Amino acid sequence: MSYFPAFLKFDDKKILIVGGGNIALEKLEHLLNFSNSIELIAKDYNENIKNLIKKNSLKFQEKAYEAGDIKGFDIVIAAIDDFSLQEQIYLETRNYNILCNCVDLQKYCDFIFPSYIKRGDLTIAVSTSGSSPAFAKNFRIYLENLIPQGVDKFLQELKELRTTMPKGKERMQFLDKKVKEYIANWSK
Length: 188
Prior knowledge:
two-stranded antiparallel ribbon
């Protein structure tokens, strides 16, 4: 079955990443585009993760994962090579209603990380529901090349217009026309 596409608001969510290697780094980099409420647990961390921890003032523990470490978190990412520990973490999250992503163990994922494009308020996610991350990545690159530079500024302008213009049919028609003209000029 396919994953349902949803955009989650992380403002009040606590995220835990278990792991300190390259896969944990990749997940951390993605999550930092949307939240700083991230903690990490690992016996050791690679230099890039250490730099991101320092740069973003993230909480971390240098230790092996222990049962109970997930208490109080809303989302847990198990980015470790130990598949039995990933399974243990996933099963433990069931007791606390925590969303879990176990890297490379799709059967233990409540959600997956899509390949995505982020330009200001524009976020486009591409997923193959895990069947081919390589396709999702390369299709994202293809789409990225179609998006004009400055789209983030255009979206900011639209946001300001939405807040200053009175609600109603005229605003909706005006903004719709403005967007259609902008898109029509992409290829020119």
